[in-house]
Design a protein that fits this description.
The chain has a single domain, classed as Jelly Rolls (Sandwich). The protein has 1 helix and 12 strands. The strands form 3 sheets. Strands 1, 4, 7, 8, 9 and 12 form a 6-stranded antiparallel β-sheet that branches. Strands 3-10-5-6 form a 4-stranded antiparallel β-sheet, with no helix packed on it. The chain has a two-stranded antiparallel sheet with strand order 2-11. About 4% of the residues have low confidence.
């Protein structure tokens, strides 16, 4: 009897995992590795996703990983976005702080690698999409040094509120 009970428990657990795996996520996230940890201004990571829920609000974040040897306390980005229903592409330039004034990194660190998740918006208001459809975001590093050293990956995270 105990073996049959263990098998039944395992079977129920597997069915539950398969069911949960089929539930759509409220999050889009994609991270792109930076070749040789040197972000050249010609390398422009691009993120494509679809919006289906026009009743929801969304938060958008930049995810960035760098080494402890990254020589700056911030990063400047030009963000180009194409959203459904917009008459033209949106272009913003934004500064993302990565460290406090005393040099302490703001993100989460493990050994020599630091990871940040920072809001990627010029305003504090969440995004609202009036139309469903295809979205595209491109990230350009616009720092004064090229290539930008010690950047490991950069990404976009979109969360439904």
């Amino acid at each position: 009897m105990p073996i049959q009970s263990s098998f039944s428990t395992l079977l129920i657990g597997l069915i539950f995992c398969l069911f949960v795996g089929c539930i759509p996520s409220n999050v889009y996230e994609k991270n792109i590795a930076i070749p040789s940890t040197s972000w050249d201004e010609k390398f422009v990571p691009e993120y494509d996703f679809n919006i289906t829920d026009t009743t929801a609000n969304y938060d958008i974040f930049l995810t960035l990983r760098h080494t402890d040897a990254y020589p700056y306390s911030n990063i400047w980005l030009q963000v180009n976005s194409q959203f459904p229903g917009a008459n033209k592409d949106s272009v913003i330039k934004i500064e993302i702080p990565l460290a406090e004034a005393n040099g302490k990194w703001l993100g989460r660190g493990m050994n020599e690698i630091w990871e940040h998740r920072m809001p990627l918006s010029a305003s504090e208001k969440p995004l609202h999409f009036s139309r469903s459809g295809h979205c595209k975001i491109k990230l350009h590093q616009i720092m004064r040094i090229n290539p930008l050293p010690q950047i490991m990956s950069v990404g976009i995270r979109l969360e439904k509120k």
